[in-house]
């Protein structure tokens, strides 16, 4: 598999994200998707883990400043990424995850783009479900619990179930497989591990 160039380091990508996102939730979402992407890169494309991670970190770069224009999501991000040295392949990968909002944007073709498309909304759904759990942790979360939340359209109503379904389809995975793999990915870095100590 060809080596993919982001055109920037992880530190530069984080600085760019922080320059355009002041809400800690948005930075945390970027980091969650980054770590999820890194997990999948180690499984499928280890040589390009850094690239996959930076795609995940910057995928919603322009959302906070332009969330009132979902159809233009990632269009504002492109010149910001380019000005910071980002490559056309980095811009393309990021824009592919919003092709459902804007048919003019590239559709996911690479496995990395399909995984971003399939897991980005799903990590949000899992994150929302974890907050409701007594343990407040992804470590004891499972597919059965996730399926229940997925079916309840009122729960985390902003999360598009259709995007998650079509992402699984693109990958040729059953929904259960996508759910299991994404939970495993989040358990591998457990963003909540330091905030929850059993018995405290």
Description of the molecule:
This protein is mainly alpha-helical and 200 residues long. The chain has one domain (10-189). The protein has ten helices and no strands. The protein has helices at 10-20, 24-44, 49-58, 63-66, 77-83, 88-96, 111-131, 143-151, 161-171, 175-189. The chain is globular. The termini are far apart.
Key attributes of the depicted protein:
single chain; 200 residues; mainly alpha; 10 helices; 0% strand
By secondary-structure content and strand pairing, the structural class works out as: mainly alpha
Poorly predicted tracts of residues: 193-200
Radius of gyration: 16 Å
Number of domains: 1
Q: What is the terminal-to-terminal distance?
A: 47 Å
Describe the sheet with the most strands. none
Q: Give the percentage of residues in beta strands.
A: under 5%
Number of helices: 10
The helix/strand series, from N terminus to C terminus, equals HHHHHHHHHH
| Anisotropy-based shape | globular
Q: Please, what is the average pLDDT?
A: 93
Tally of strands: 0
Helix content: 55-70%
